[in-house]
Amino acid sequence: MFPNVLFEPPTSFKAGFPSDYEIGTVDMRWKDKFGVFIIRSAEGLYALSNVCTHLGCTVNWLGGENKFKCPCHGSGYYKNGINFEGPTPRPLERFAVSLAEDGQILIDKSKKYQQEKGQWNDPNSFLNV
Ligand code: FES
User: Fold this and answer.
1) For 9-52, how does the pLDDT look when each residue is reduced to its tens digit (9 = 90+)?
2) Label partner for 104 (CA 20 to 30 A): which of 38, 51, 85, 95?
3) Atom of ligand 1 nearest to the CA of 55
4) 1: burial class by Cβ within 10 Å (0-12, 13-18, 19+)?
5) Cα separation of 17 and 77, whole Å?
6) Ligand 1 pocket mutation pick from 72, 84, 90, 93 by most atoms within 8 angstroms of CB
7) Would you list the domain boundaries of the chain?
8) CATH architecture of 12-125
């Protein structure tokens, strides 16, 4: 007999301070635990899902080729999450990102933003820091 308990990771987490992230890099410190890449650009910061939008495999960041690549059927995505090769029909999804009261980045995975629906214009999909 085993207890019927499902352990799921929390849907939101604090990801440190914006200054912990280098401009221009794809940060992978939360990839394994939460399935999130954090990217800081000159304009700000966004959180990309690591779930391929083709059939749901886990994408990897290939720094040497400057792209996300899915090992299952070869879909590729630019650093901003836009798809450009392989069978996937749409970009990676972004998660809600905001600043908590203590100044740390707060990622909320329960809220997703899809580029093809115009949702990346939502101020919650991007952090101006
Ligand atoms: S699941 Fe990623 S390319 Fe098919």
Assistant:
1) 678 999 999 999 999 999 999 999 999 999 999 989 999 999 99
2) 51
3) 1
4) exposed
5) 26
6) 72
7) 12-125
8) 3-layer Sandwich (2.102)
